[in-house]
Amino acid sequence: MSFQSYLDNLREKPEHIRRHYAFWTSLGVTATIFAFWLASFTTLGNSTKDAVARVVNNTETPAQSLVASVGAFFGDIKDMVFGPKKINYSTVEVSPGER
Length: 99
Description:
Elements: H1 3-11, H2 15-40, H3 47-58, H4 62-82
C-alpha cells in the first residue's frame, strides 16, 4: 500500500475519523519534537560530558558512535526525569553580627 493510496483511503472516511487521525499524528510529531528539545539540554556538571566524550573516543566505526550517542540521549532523558544526582543540603546558621 503506497502512501498516496493510504491518503486516498483516508479521504473517503468520515470527518470525525479524519480528525482523530489528524490529532494523533500531530500529537506524535509534537512529542517527537519535544523529546529532541529535551535532549538538547545538557545536564549540569562535566561528568556527563566527560563520560560521553570517553564513549565516543572508544568507538571505532560511525555505527558504534551513533549507538553511543543514542545511548547517551536516553541516559540524559532518564536523568532529566528521575534526577541524576542526589543533592545534599547542609544547614547554615546565621547569627546577628556587630555593626
